[in-house]
Structure formats: structure tokens, C-alpha cells
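Notebook B, p. 112. Complex prediction, attempt 2.
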Amino acid sequence: MPRFSARLEATELKLLDSKSLRVRLRVRNTSDRLWPAGGPVFLAYQVLDGKAESLLAEGRRTALEADLPPGGEAEAILDIELPPEQGAYRVLLSPVEEPVAWFYQRGSECLALEVRVDSGGVRVSQRRLTAAARRAERLRRALARLLTAPFITIARHRPLIVSMVRRDIHGRYRGSVAGLVWTVISPLLLMLTYFFVFALVLKVRFGPGPEAAGPVNFLLYFVCGMLPWLAFSEALARAPSVMLEHKTLVTRVLFPVEILPVNIACAGLASGFFALLVFLAGLLLFRHGIPVTALYLPLVLLPQVLLTIGLCWFLAALGVFLRDTGQFMSFLLTLWFFATPICYPETALPASTMAVFGKNPVYVMVRCYRAIFLDGTAPPWGMLGWLAAGGLAAYLLGFAWFYKSRKSFADVL
Amino acid sequence: MRFFWTVGQAFVSNLIRRRALLANLVVRDFKQRYVGSAAGWLWAVIHPAVLLLSYSFVFAAVFKVRPIPGSGTDSFVLYLFAGILPWLLFQETVQRSATTVLDHSNLITKTVFPSEVLPISLFISGLLNHFLGLAVLLAMVAVLVKKITVFILLVPVYMVLLALFTIGVGWLVSSLNVFLRDTAQALSVILTFWFWFTPIFFSAQSLPERVRFIARINPLAYVVEAYRNCLLAGRAPAPADLGLTAAFAIVSFLAGGLFFRYTKRAFGDVL
């Protein structure tokens, strides 16, 4: 028989006034030890909020009037003080051994009173909670939170995100000439360099046939592949340092820090969007039209956004604890860029490596963008489905990871 | 001419007098980076290794780039390795030189400190890495090519020229960065372009005729080609190229040195 085991039943519930409740309890000692009168085993209660997430108050201990041997039963009366505010509460009644542990936390069952205080009065229902039931309930709640919390967070702070992203973009493009140079000229020059190396020196061509030759075709395919990459890589490169940059917000004030990585992801998407406008202008110029399949873009964009935000959450939290993350990411992104068929066609990848490289999410994005903008076909659905599943998983797990580690940010920063 | 001679003499004797300080700086830098830090070692070894392998994958497996005939080897990894070694030494030294004066601003403002030794110490510290890379490369050459020629003796000559050129550029950027704090950032962008326009992945001969001048005006291109010629092909670089490289190196060294000497006086006010 275990050491912490008890069975409780409320035989009578009486409301003394709107704030206190008298419970007559029948207690059965199902453990292997004697509970002596006067302690150290007491009967007591805890008041939790209605979702059983946080402890609001710890109640007075009530001593047993007589020794209670294993298998014995006793009666006791507990007066429970409820919080003065209206709302839903859960009161857990359980024996507690001072100074060792609450019985219910060591696997014993306990009695739960669901109390609802509103203007109409107080309503109470009782329920016996076994340890397994408590665990299942916690798991269900955690799962529900895992699935909904990231969406709720973003929806709730939408105005803040919009204004912060707007400020970020304005600051970059309008603030200074140097800023403009860094953010616009340097990627342009980099693209020009790749154009030189890959189109002129290595003579890469996209697709067979004479129309595939020539720098214009290369440029279209290359820039089309760069569109998702720009948005994705910019966000991932900035994410590891975002918490450090906003140190004061993280440590000093009450601020929803979980939106900082979201801002980074959105700013990256904005860069991608500007590039898209330039690309569409180029498409009109060189091909005299935009295929109607471009309307599939939102379907491709959605998983891309989820994946980017999820990874940003993950990296932002990691960057707080491992300061090398930023350096490592810039290295990883260089490798990633060349492992993705952006400046070369996907057919150039050796078939034997496709098992690995075919799973690359940016590869999927690049394929989808090229399909809808250049080839005029629907995106490859199987791959897009894979991207959507992976993006959603990254989004949910990234937020869970961020949420878990958020509490220690202030200590580390 | 006389002027240069005097300045050069003064400079060299100054360096010899400061050799203890120089050795100190190198040892300290080396310790800071590697001793007691597993990450430092990992970074120094894994970073270039992974970079080399992934570039080899992209260019050899995806683009099917092969070393041009007469390179002495069919292995793109070797070809790339031999070419990228001098580049990495140059890039690391220059990039780190950019911030070195700022990093040592305490020493410079509070004491009489010959700040011109800083880029030199960075080069020497990078040289240790370079030797490690060369040793690995030579082992690979011995196993894969089975031929090491006498021209390997020319590598130290190019190393000296590279040192002159690199230190000259290092002086230029380290002093510029004191006055224009964006220099370090701009430099990382410039170095990226420089890297791609240097025939490291490809040979200068495979450049289209129109753009071949890019390799001619790029001092690093000569060094890279010379490393490959001496280590892999077993061929002496053309004497004209050697002369040109030497000219580039000396001009860079003198210009950088004079620039540093001239601007150094203002460091105290700006730092």
C-alpha cells in the first residue's frame, strides 16, 4: 500500500455567505500508515483558477481529532474561503503531510469542487479526481493550448505587430542613406555576382531548348527562386538576435515578447513582397504577361509564413541561451542557399541526393513559385502538402518551445 | 625613392624592436580563440571543412565543374582546396583587421602603443591556421596525386607577397574603420564579391573573354593560381605574373602603411 493514499467524500456542502463554504468531509485512510491526531497529516485545500492553471490561495490546515489508522474513517469540517472576485474556481481538497507533500501531488486521488461565483450567487459541484484523471485533464489542456495559443497570440496582438513591422520597414528604407544601401543595394549586388558566376562563367541554363539559353531566362528563374529565399533567409538571419536587441522590452516592461520573432518574419515577408513586385514587372517586360496560375500564391504563401514564424520563434529563444546561434545561422544559411536549387535548376541535383534535398522546405517553395509564375502550372500538390504539414508543425512546436523558455529570458539577458 | 627607403627602413627596424610585443599579441589572440574553448577549435576546423565540402558538392556534383586540363588533378576538392587556402587567410585577416583598432582602443588611448602591429599580429595568427590547412592539403596531394614537385618552394614566396598585400589592406581598413564605423560592415559585403570574382571555383581561363580582365586586375587571382600551379600542377608561375603580384603587394603594403601612419595621429581624438 502506498504512503500517500486517501479517499475523500463531501457529505454536506453549505454556503455560509457569498465568500465562504462549509464542507463536511468523510475521510478514509487508504495508506499504510497511521495518521496521528494533531499532525503531521492535516486536511486542507487549495484554490485554483477555473482552468486549474494557477494557484490562487492555500487554505488553513485542519488537524484530525483522533488518530486514524490505515483503513479507518473519520469526519471533519473544513471552512473554505473563496476569492472575493466573481469567477470560476476549482477547490482541491486533499490531505497534506507537513512538511512533505500534498497527497494529491503524490498520486493520491482528491476531491475537486468546481465553484462558480457570479451575481446570482455561488454554484458548487463536486467531483472525485484520480491522479490519472488529473494527468489526462492536464494533457488535454496542454494539447489544446499547443494547438490554439500561437494563433490566439497573433490574433490578439495584430495591431501591435502591424505597427511594429511598419516601423521596422520604414526605419530601414527611409531612415538613412546607409540603411538603404545595406538593404537594397547589397542584395542586388549579390544577385549580380551570382548572375556573373552562374550565368556567365558556369553557363547554367534552365530547361532544354534554345529559348532556355540566354541570360534573360536565367535571370527570371533565378529571381523567382530568390523570392521565397529572400523572405525566409532574412527572417532566419535576424531571429537569433531579436531578443537581445529588444533587451529592455524583454526584461523591464510587461510586453508580449512572443510577437518579436513574428515581427521579424513579417518584415522578411515584406522584403520578399517588394522583390515580388520587381519580379512581376520583369515578367511583364520580358514575357508580356503573368500566368493566371499566379493566383495560387496565397496557397503557397500560407505554409511559408507558418514555417518562417515557427522557425523564428525557435531561433529567437535559442539565441538567448546560445549566443553563437546567430553566427551559426549565417553559416548554415550560406550552405542552405547552395543546397537549394535557386541559382541552378532542380534537375541538376544528382538523383541519389533527392531523398535528402527533396525534403528541403525551401526547395519546395522554390518549385512552387517557379511552377505558378514561370511554368504556368498548378503547384506540385504532394510537395505543397508536405510543406504545409511541416510548416504547421514548426509553427506549433516553435511557439511551444518559445513559450516554455520565455520564463528564463529575463534571467539570462 | 629615398623617402620610401627611409620609411621602410624605419618600419622594419621598428618591427624588429617590437617583436616581443608582436609575439605577445599573437599568443594572446591564439589563446583567446582556441585555448579552453572547444567552440573555437570546432569553429576553426569544422567551418572551413564544411564549407569546402559543400562547395565541392555544389560545383562538382551539381554543376559538374572539373578542373581544367593541366591542373595536375581531376579532383575538384583538391583544386578548390588549394585555391581557397590563400583566400581564407586574406579574408580572415582583412575582416578581423577592420575592428582590431577599435577592440584595442584602451591600449591605444591610454598607453604609447604601436597600433600598426595589430594587423600584422592578426596575419601571423591566421598563418597558423593556414599552415594547418597546407599540411592537410599536402597530405591529400601526396595520397591522391602522388606527386609533390620542387615548385612547392615557391609557395613561401607567394606567402610573403600575400602577407605584404594583406597587411597593407589590413592597415587601410583598420584605420578607415576608426573614422567610418560602417567600414567593417561594408567590408564583409565587398569581401563576398571579391570572393566570387576571384577564380577559386573556376580557372581564369574559363572566364568569358569580355570579363577576363577581372582576373587580371585582381591580385588575389594571381596568388590563387600560383598556389594551384605550385602545389597541384607542378608548374612555375609565369615570371611576369610573379612580378605583377610583387608589384601589387608592395604597392598595397606601402600605400596601406603610409595611410595608417598618416591617420594614426587622429586615433586618439576619435577613439
